[in-house]
Amino acid sequence: MNAGPATGLSTDQAPPLAIPLSFFFVAPVGLSIAGVFLLSFGALCFSSRFVPQAAILTHLATLGFIGPVMIGALYQMIPVVAGAPLPWIRLAHTVHLALLLGLISLLLALAGAWPAAHSVAALSLGSAFVGFLAPASWALTRRATAKTASVRGMQLAMLALATTIAIGLQMVWARGGGRFVLGDYNDWLIAHVSIGLFGWVGGLITAIAWQVIPVFYLTPHYPKRWPTIGLALIAAGIILPVIAATIGFEVRIAAAPTVLLIGVIKPLTTIALLRKRRRKRVDRSLYFWYAGLAAGPLTAATAALAAFCDDPRFPILMGWLALFGWAGAIVHGMLTRIVPFLIWFHRYAHLVGRQPVPSMRQLLPPRYVGVGLFSHLATTALGVAAILTGNSLLIGLAGAGLIATGLALASELLRPLLHRPAKT
How far apart are CA 368 and CA 347, in angstroms? Predict the structure, then answer.
C-alpha cells in the first residue's frame, strides 16, 4: 500500500511494527524513573548543572525519553518519507538492547556506583549508535528516492547525532580516567549540549514537522524559503560549535543559529500554518504542538540568559524547558498520533471494505490524550517554579508529575496496542 503522491509517503516500505514500538515504549519508563530520581534527590538535581544528579536527570530525559522516540521514529520515517528501506533492519533489536545497557551503565558511571561503568557505557552506547547510524545514514544518502527538505533535514540531524555521540563518548572515556584529547573539556561540554539539543533534537523535530504538520493536520505546506533557511541554520548549529570549541572561541555564541530556529522561526511559521488548517476539529495532540512551540521562545530566552548571566538557575531552567517543555511536549504529542496510526495501518488497513474497522480516535480516545496533556503541562510548570524558587515541595511535586506523565504516556501507548481486529 502506497499513500500516493498526495502525501509523498511510501507506507508500503514501513518496517515491522515491533521495531518503532520497542523504542517508543522506553519513553514512559524513562520519564517515570526520572520522576523517582527527582523525588529521591530533590534540590541536588536543580542546584547546579555540574553536579552528577543534574547530569543523571538530563540523560534520563535525553537517552531515556526523547532519544529512543526519535530513533524509533527514524526507523519508521526513513523508509516512508525518504523511500529508503534500512538495510539489516533486524539489527534494530540489538540497537535497542545496547541502548538500554548503555543508558543504565552511563547512569551508574555518573553516580560513581561501578568502577567499570564508564567502559561499559562507552562500549554499549557506541555500539548502539553505530548500529543505528550506519544503516540509517546509508539509507538516507544512498537509497533515498525523495530529495525533499525533510530528507535533507534528517541527514543533518543524523550528522548532529553522530557529532554529539563522538563528543559524548570522549567525555565518558575522560571521566573514567582516560585522556580528553579534544581540548578544553568545558568548551566541548557546551558543544555537546548545544549540538545534541538544538542540532539533533531540534533539527529532527524541524525536519519531521515539514512533513507531518501538513499531512496530519491538513495545513498548507511550509513556504519554500523557510525550509531552506532552516537547513542552513541547522547546519550552522552543528559546524560552528565544533569550530568554536576547537579554536577556543565562545561556544555559547556559536549555538545562536539553531537557537534562533527553534525559538523564533519555527514557532512563528508553524503556528501560522496551524491557524490555516482545513480540518477545524481540534485534535488534542495539536495542543502538545502549541505547548512545545510556545516553549521554544522561552527556551531560547533562557539559553541567552544562561550564556550571559552567572545565575546557576538559568542553565538548569533552559534544560528543563528544552527537554520537558519544548522537545518533550512535541515528542509526547506526536506519539499520540503516530502510534494509533501505526496500529491502524498494520492491523486494520487491509480489512477496509471487508469488515468494520475502528478510527484512530477509537484506538486512542481523546480522554486518554487529555490526561497526558494535563499531566505533562502541569509537570513542566511545576518544574519551572521549583527551579526558580528552590522550594522542596514544588520539586517533589515536579518529580511526582514526571511519574504521572510517564504512566499517562504508557496508557496512551498501551491502549491502541491492545486493540485487535475481531476474529472472523
Answer: 21
The DSSP secondary-structure symbol of 71 reads H
Q: Sort 246 into a burial class: Cβ within 10 Å, 0-12 / 13-18 / 19+.
A: middle
For 344-356, what is each residue's pLDDT tens digit? 988 988 888 788 8
CB 86 within 8 A of CB 139: yes
Q: What is the rounded distance in angstroms from the CA atom of residue 88 to the CA atom of residue 103?
A: 23
Question: pTM of this prediction?
Answer: 0.93
Q: Which three cell numbers stand for residue 112?
A: 560513581
Q: What is the rounded distance in angstroms from the CA atom of residue 28 to the CA atom of residue 257?
A: 31
Query: Which phi-psi region, left, alpha or beta, contains residue 175 (left: φ > 0; alpha: ψ -120 to 50)?
Result: alpha
How many angstroms from the chain centroid is the CA of residue 249?
Answer: 28
DSSP state of 237: H
Full DSSP string of 316-372: HHHHHIIIIIIHHHHHHHHHHHHHHHHHHHHHTGGGTTTS----HHHHS-HHHHHHH
Q: How far is CA 200 from CA 70, 161, 180, in A?
A: 9, 5, 23
Cell digits for 275?
Answer: 491557524
pLDDT tens for 233-270 read 999 999 999 999 999 888 888 888 888 888 888 899 99
CA angle 74, 18, 208 (to 5 degrees): 20
H or E stretch at 134: helix 117-138
C-alpha cell at 363: 484506538
Alpha helices in 42-116 (DSSP H): 52-61, 67-82, 91-111
* Half-sphere exposure (Cβ direction) of 418: Cα atoms closer than 13 Å: 7
Sequence-distant (≥ 6) Cβ neighbours of residue 418 within 8 angstroms: none
- Long-range interactions of 49-58: CB distance < 8 A, separation 24+: 49/312, 49/315, 49/316, 49/319, 52/110, 52/111, 52/112, 54/316, 54/319, 55/110, 56/107, 56/110, 56/111, 58/319, 58/323
